[in-house]
Sequence to fold (919 residues):
Amino acid sequence: MTIESDPSYPAHWEADVVLRDGGTARIRPITTEDAGRLVSFYEQVSDESKYYRFFAPYPRLSDRDVRRFTHHDYVDRVGLAATIGGQFIGTVRYDRIGPDGRPASAPADEAEVAFLVQDAHQGRGVASALLEHIGAVARERGIRRFAAEVLPANTKMIKVFTDVGYEQKRSFEDGSVHLTLDLEPTAESLAVQRAREQRAEARSVQRLLTPGSVAVVGVSRSGAGVGAAALRNLRDSGFHGHLYAVNEAVTRDLLDGVRAYRSIEAVGAPVDLAVIAVPADRVPGVVAACGEHGVQGLVVLSDGYGESGPAGLARQRELVRQVRSYGMRLIGPNAYGVINTAPEVELNASLTPAPMPMRGRIGLFTQSGAIGIALLSALLRRGEGLSSFISAGNRADVSGNDILQYWYDDQATDVALMYLETLGNPRKFTRLARRTAAEKPVVVARGGRHTPAGHVVPDTRLPEATVSDLLRQAGVIRVDTVTELVDVGLLLASQPLPAGPRVAILGNSESLGVLTYDACLTQGLRPLAPLDLTTAASPQDFRAALVSALASEDCDAVVVTAIPWVNEQALADELADALREAVAEVPGKPVAVVHVELGELVDALSAERGPWAPGPRTPDGPGTPDGPTADRIPSYPAAERAVRALAEAVRYGQWRRSLAEVGHVPEYEDIDEAGAAAQLAGLLADVDGGAVLTLAEWDARELLGRYGIRVLPALPAPSPDAAVRAAGILGYPVALKTTAPHLRHRADLGGVRLDLRNEAELRRSYEDLTGLLGKPSELQPVVQAMVPRGVDTVVRSVIDPAAGAVLSFGLAGVASELLGDTAHRLVPATDRDAAGLIRSIRTAPLLFGWRGSAPVDTAALEELLLRVSRLVDDHPEVIGVSLEPVVVATEGLSVLSATVRVAHPPARGDLGPRTLPSY
Fold:
């Protein structure tokens, strides 16, 4: 028998998934202990659904059926169940079959598949999720095709199969539809999977932010404490739904004017969202009660979890398991809460006291409650509102990835601001951020270089510079501080994107104008000469100058600088109105204001003029019902801050425009993918599951050669005579170099001799080398043919547990290594990625003819990068490739040395089915 404690039980197939309506379910293998659950499940399925499953009336399962459907070998026969609250809501199974359609074992690579979903849960995407997971299991077990027989009237199930995106064949035989699905992932199946993922995860967040009813559990009768504060904030925010207070010792009908009950069960109406503020040891009982009552989501304000140590971390993991078992999502624990300013909701389920932040176009996500408070205060002081706010605390369930899914198609959010202490899954984050950034700006501040207490999400081991590169590749605006996060967000939320880097500067202080000019140069912008209006300038002088600058075809943005007048209060409102009038007269370009000690001007510029309702974002910037708005103009107390924000907007605008040129992953006819797969299978045949194998030089050369990457052979030279023989084989001139680990790739230590044109030079160099650095046995010298001179570079690809495969490029040598001058892209890289990769390092000019030198063959270098990317992407067994050095000449390039590391791939790769993270 197979039970969950059995060593043969495939625990890695267990997964939590988000369904189409935003609820969750757990998918797991069916075991022999599930007989009772299976019978109960089947009794709740309608006669019609049973008929569609078995093609005949089938009112109940026989004992033989129950045994067959619960006993599996998890190789040729597999069954999975989707569960909520421990009970089955859907099942799927496959049976391996041979060419004759009869039961078979490997190497047969086809299986018959069948589903059954409870009628109450049909339409929630249960079958689609089960198909993704049973398909991944089948691929893992060597099955390449699914066959299914479906009655023509069962249109829902036919649609499940046809919409999945796999290559398929359909035929009509003996009164049923016969479907054959090729399980190899395709671009279409991946697109379908990710679209479903986005809709489901966005819907799960929407349910948390737009509840029709909220219960606060843990409201003290005295009015003190976290629960009472959360209740008051919900009440005072004007929440449009039903609000309930829960206290197990309540003796009256109302608490703080809100209907009160002793338990969730006592609330005689649906509860969509529960805010939990009870001690951690009482939370499990509350969660169970919420699950039984049908609550959709939880905000757990309670502390005492991962942030408190190992015991709290274990409590946190159990909390997530319990919440998901009931199909709910969780914000927290140790959360600060959520806010939704939508006029039809007005939800303040947080510890932020009244007044609630005003409505605006910025969405804000933080992992830290303290930082959340600081950001809310900063935005309020500068007159900016929010669309939504989520402070996720320990983010044990709902994370920044889920929020990005929601913001992607949230019409109320124009700009996404995120304070992140860990990225968790950089690969998924960059994928989601790239898609979101194509529609609206995503600005990220990272607050730490380590995983804080309570955050059980495993952070990436990638260097910080690498993570920054990956974020830039995704179009994310990366800032260093919370202040910069607000500065950039304010400009993007109120101003159109600049069309280019040209900046006009005008104001009433020549010195402040010069400071702004210098700041522009520092940020890589192209400032025009500052226009000094003199200290005598009136608001109308500012207006006229701004109109002229905005109308000019020579600038893409304007920075206005202002110093105080003698009577500041009298002129602040006039200047703010004058600037607004100018922008309204000539719209379409961003404007930022730099002020010195002009507090009244800040207030005037951030104030709304007349009734205004934020509208959908236009392609060029935020909007109102009538188009881009200049109702608020962002102001900054320092030129550097204003220009930094503007520069980020310029770079983001350039990235957005670059999306018009879609990159692609090229195909190369000389790639032998099948041969490489066979070679890797042979090399790993005797390697243990968790071991890493560094390939021998000849194996690495053969594998790389299958992808069109030629590595120049190097012949061992353990003695002077051996060196001479090697040179005779290769032909003069040759290079003599050491390969000892402490000297490898360190030409600066004298371990390389080049351009040796005859035997005498070779013997002399061999004697010098060994005399200087050590014995041949220590140096491990080799002889290699000389190649055309060029620029020495390094190409690498590594696998990060969280980010996946990363492609890296830089120049060879100690200086580049010391300065960290290496650029990175995620695999698979497109042709545009490869071109950008070699141009993004600081020493890139050396490749393009710096100081009169001949430009090298960057096209050949780009092709090499793409071939390495293809190798790593095609074969997850390849976990590391290092080509060093790669000498790029004016025509062609030469790979002088290669190291390849391989290992058995994980059971689930990046193309695996949708799952919620499990920690």
Observations:
- The longest strand covers residues 87-97.
- Residues 187-209 form the longest helix (23 residues).
- Residues 205 and 406 are 6 Å apart (CA to CA).
